[in-house]
Amino acid sequence: MTLTACGIRPTSILTGAEAPTVSSHSVTIYLVTPERDGLVRRTREYTGTLDITTAMNLLLAGLTDEERKLGLVSELPTTSAKAVAVQNVIVMPQGVEPPSSKWAVFQVHCTALASRAKVAGVESLPNENCP
User: Fold this and answer.
1) Of 39, 70, 80, 111, which has the highest C-beta tally within 10 A?
2) Taking the model in full, what pTM does it have?
3) Closest to 101 measured CA to CA, from 76, 67, 128, 131
4) CB-CB contact of 73 with 34 (8 Å)
5) Strand blocks (E) in the chain
């Protein structure tokens, strides 16, 4: 019978830096029903630092595959351009015209309300429009 052993000697405990952390958040946006007769509240997971433009930029980025499968629509143009915050007002990126349909206005308004922001050029609407 043969026995073998590793020749590594014991070492002291080595400490490292803090473990990395990832900041993940649920962000609310509003999309239009397949019948175009109402809004649907959607929650998306977002990793990173949140600001008041995060939800609007997720809305402008377009639908996810799951949202398309559900038949949901957005009446806002899809763009990679980013909305920016000026004080506590969201300014939409160039190329995103003021919403022309009632549901597009509601999408912007309800998504902004969920972010506790205001959108320049969009009148305040009663909150009952946001499910």
Assistant:
1) 111
2) 0.77
3) 76
4) yes
5) 24-32, 39-47, 84-86, 89-91, 118-119
